[in-house]
Design goal:
It is a single chain. The protein is an alpha/beta fold. The chain folds into four domains: 167 residues, Beta-Lactamase (2-Layer Sandwich); 165 residues, Rossmann fold; 73 residues, Helicase, Ruva Protein, domain 3 (Orthogonal Bundle); 35 residues. The chain has 22 helices and 16 strands. The longest helix is centred in the middle third of the chain and has 45 residues.
Length: 598
C-alpha cells in the first residue's frame, strides 16, 4: 500500500508543465482518506471570489503583478493545478503571459505550457472551451496534450475562457488540473466564475492601456507646445501685456510670452510657484487670452474644504443626497462647462479623491453626488500648487497618473527676488491703490525704494503688498521714508516668521553721519577670531565692509545671498563662496539658515 502511494505521488512530476500546488487540494493520486474537503461552489463563494479579485485588480501597481495575484487568489476558489492569463497586442501577437509566482522574464516559460491550438480555438470562436480529458478532445493537438503534461497514466482537464475589451478578444484565462471524477459536477460553476473574472480582467487591461496611450499622447502634446514656443524667432516676438500683471523684467516678459502661447491650446496647465507669486492671476490671464474667454472662469481652492464637501462642490449633488441637500445643485465642473476651471492647491487633495478627480479629467464626465446619471462637460483645467509634486509622487502621497494628467504644460512662476527690477513698479501700483481706497496722496521717497529693493520678500508679491499697505497706514508725512518701514526698527514680524530669509541689511538702520561706527573696548566674543568657515567667508566681503553687529551676522548675510543667487542649491552656493559642499553645509547649520524648497 505504502509503495503504491509513493508511486502515485511521483506521477504529477512526469508532466512537463509548471507545477503550482493549490492550497485547497491534493492531487487525484492521493488516497481517499487524505483528500481535503472539496472547494465550495455556492453562490456565496462566487460573490466572495469576485469581490476579492476585484480588490486585487483595483489596487495600484503594475498590470503583471495584479494578474499574477489574481491567479494566486483563484486557487482558493477553483480546483486547479495551473492558471495562466495570456494577453495579445493590437496585432494579435502574444504580449503578456502571467501565472502564479510570476516574475520578470518568466513569460516564455508560461507560454510554452499553453495548449496553442486550444487557445486559438477560444480566440476564434469567442467562447469558453471545456475539456474533461484533453487527450480525447479534437480541439487539442498532440503538442497541446504534451504541453499540459497529460499521459496514459495521468489525464488532465482544461477550462479556458476569452478575455474581451468591448467586443474584441484580447486574451484568455485558462486553468488545468489532474482529472478528478468528483469535480465534474462543478464545471458549470467554474466556467461561470472564470467568465466573470475574465470580464474584470478585460476592464482592468482596458484601463491600463488607455492610461498608457493617454500618457504618451500627453507627452507628445507637451513636446509639440514646447517646440512651437521655441520655433518662433525672437525677432518676431512682440511684447505681451496682460491686465493685472505688472512688471518689465526679463523673467516676467518670458512668462507672459509663454502664457500667450499656452492660451491658444486647450491643454491642461499646472501653474507652479511659491506662495504669493500670483498663480490665480496667471490662470485668469490664460483664460482671458484663450478662445474660452467669453465663457465662465470658475475657481476653487482644494485645500479649503474637506473631502466630502469638495466632492459636492466639484461635481454637484442631487436633492436628498445628504442631510443638508435640500435642493439639487450644480458643481464647479458643470458651471465651468465650455470655460475654464481653476483648481488651486491641487497638491493638498486626499488620495481617495485623487482617483475620482482623475476620471473626470481624463473622460470629462462625472455623476453628481446621489445620482447615477453621467454628465459630459467640456472644461479646460488650470491647476496650481506650491508643493513639490515630484517628491509627493515618490512618497506615494500623490498619484503618478494624476500628476501626468495635470502636468501636461507646467508653468513655473518666478519669485519676486528673481525680478527685483519690478519691485518699484509693483510698489507704486500698490500705493496708488491704497491712496484711492483711503483718500490719501502718499508717495515714495528714494530711500524707501532702496529699502524695498534690498528686501528678500520670501512671501513674494503678497508680502510686498502687505508691506506697502502697513507702511502707508502708519506713515506720518506725505512721503514714505526709509525710517517709516518696520524692518528699520527691528519690528518686521514677517522677517521673524521666515527666520531671516529676507535680506537682513534692510533691518539695520543706517548709522548717522555724526556718529561714525567705532570698534572700542576689548575684543568681544562676537569679534573674536572666526572659525575656518567664517574666515573663508570674510575673505569674500567687499573692501571696507563694516561689521555692525559682529562677524556672525555679516557671514550669515553672505551665506544667504549666495544661496539666493544659486537658487538654494548648496553645491552652487559653495562654488560662489569658494567653499566645499561640506563647509557650506556646516555654515547653514551654524547660522540656523533653513533651506528653501521649491
Amino acid at each position: 500500500m505504502d509503495n503504491d502511494m509513493q508511486h502515485e505521488t511521483r506521477k504529477p512530476e512526469q508532466g512537463v508543465m509548471l507545477h503550482i500546488p493549490s492550497a485547497r487540494e491534493k492531487l487525484i493520486s492521493q488516497s481517499e482518506g487524505e483528500r481535503e474537503v472539496p472547494i465550495e461552489s455556492s453562490p456565496e463563494s462566487v460573490l466572495t471570489a469576485v469581490s476579492e479579485i476585484s480588490k486585487v485588480l483595483a489596487a495600484p501597481g503594475r498590470l503583471e503583478v495584479a494578474l499574477a495575484n489574481v491567479v494566486n487568489l483563484l486557487q482558493s476558489f477553483v480546483q486547479m493545478r495551473n492558471g495562466i492569463v495570456l494577453l495579445f497586442d493590437d496585432d494579435g501577437m502574444p504580449d503578456l503571459t502571467v501565472g502564479a509566482g510570476w516574475s520578470e522574464g518568466s513569460d516564455e516559460r508560461y507560454r510554452t505550457c499553453l495548449p496553442k491550438k486550444a487557445i486559438d480555438h477560444i480566440v476564434a470562436t469567442d467562447k469558453p472551451l471545456i475539456a474533461e480529458n484533453v487527450a480525447t478532445e479534437a480541439a487539442f493537438s498532440a503538442a497541446d496534450v504534451n504541453a499540459l503534461g497529460a499521459c496514459v497514466n495521468m489525464s488532465v482537464s482544461f477550462i479556458g475562457v476569452p478575455i474581451r475589451i468591448d467586443a474584441k478578444v484580447v486574451g484568455t484565462l485558462s486553468i488545468d488540473r489532474i482529472l478528478d471524477v468528483s469535480s465534474s459536477g462543478r464545471l458549470d460553476y467554474e466556467v461561470r466564475l472564470l467568465a466573470m473574472i475574465a470580464n474584470l480582467v478585460g476592464q482592468t487591461v482596458k484601463l491600463h492601456r488607455l492610461s498608457a496611450d493617454d500618457g504618451e499622447r500627453l507627452t507628445t502634446e507637451k513636446d509639440r507646445l514646447q517646440k512651437q514656443e521655441f520655433r518662433q524667432p525672437p525677432r518676431e516676438r512682440k511684447k505681451v501685456h496682460i491686465d493685472g500683471i505688472i512688471g518689465d523684467s526679463p523673467p516676467l516678459r518670458a512668462l507672459l510670452e509663454k502664457i500667450a502661447v499656452i492660451a491658444k491650446s486647450n491643454s491642461t496647465v499646472l501653474v507652479r510657484g511659491e506662495s504669493g507669486t500670483g498663480k490665480e492671476l496667471v490662470a485668469k490671464a490664460i483664460h482671458a487670452l484663450s478662445s474660452r474667454a467669453k465663457r465662465p472662469f470658475v475657481k476653487l481652492n482644494c485645500a479649503a474644504l474637506p473631502e466630502t464637501v469638495l466632492e459636492s462642490e466639484l461635481f454637484g449633488h442631487e436633492k436628498g443626497a445628504f442631510t443638508s441637500a435640500f435642493n439639487s445643485r450644480k458643481g464647479r465642473f458643470e458651471l465651468a462647462d465650455k470655460g475654464t476651471l481653476f483648481l488651486d492647491e491641487i497638491g493638498e487633495i486626499s488620495a481617495s479623491f485623487q482617483a475620482k478627480l482623475l476620471r473626470v479629467l481624463q473622460e470629462q464626465e462625472f455623476e453628481r453626488v446621489g445620482s447615477n446619471q453621467t454628465i459630459k462637460v467640456d472644461v479646460r483645467v488650470v491647476a496650481a500648487t506650491n508643493k513639490n509634486l515630484e517628491e509627493a509622487v515618490a512618497r506615494n502621497e500623490f498619484r503618478a497618473d494624476l500628476y501626468y494628467r495635470v502636468s501636461v504644460v507646467p508653468l513655473l512662476l518666478p519669485p519676486l527676488r528673481e525680478r527685483r527690477s519690478d519691485i518699484p513698479l509693483l510698489a507704486a501700483e500698490f500705493l496708488k491703490k491704497f491712496n484711492r481706497e483711503n483718500g490719501r496722496a502718499l508717495s515714495f521717497d528714494v530711500s524707501a525704494i532702496e529699502i524695498l529693493m534690498k528686501c528678500g520678500f520670501p512671501g513674494n508679491i503678497r508680502e510686498l503688498e502687505n508691506c506697502v499697505a502697513r507702511t502707508a497706514t502708519l506713515a506720518p508725512g506725505p512721503s514714505i521714508l526709509r525710517n517709516d518701514f518696520a524692518c528699520c526698527h527691528g519690528q518686521c514680524l514677517s522677517s521673524v516668521l521666515w527666520k531671516g530669509k529676507s535680506d537682513e541689511t534692510a533691518r539695520e538702520p543706517v548709522p548717522s553721519a555724526s556718529m561714525p561706527v567705532k570698534l572700542a573696548g576689548p575684543l568681544t566674543e562676537a569679534a573674536a577670531p572666526a572659525s575656518p568657515v567664517s574666515g573663508e567667508l570674510a575673505a569674500l566681503a567687499p573692501p571696507g565692509a563694516a561689521l555692525v553687529s559682529g562677524a556672525k551676522i555679516t557671514d550669515r548675510e553672505r551665506v544667504i545671498a549666495a544661496m539666493e543667487k544659486s537658487g538654494w542649491v548648496q553645491a552652487k552656493a559653495a562654488r560662489l563662496l569658494g567653499l566645499t559642499p561640506r563647509q557650506i553645509g556646516y555654515a547653514l547649520r551654524k547660522y540656523g539658515i533653513e533651506i528653501k524648497r521649491f
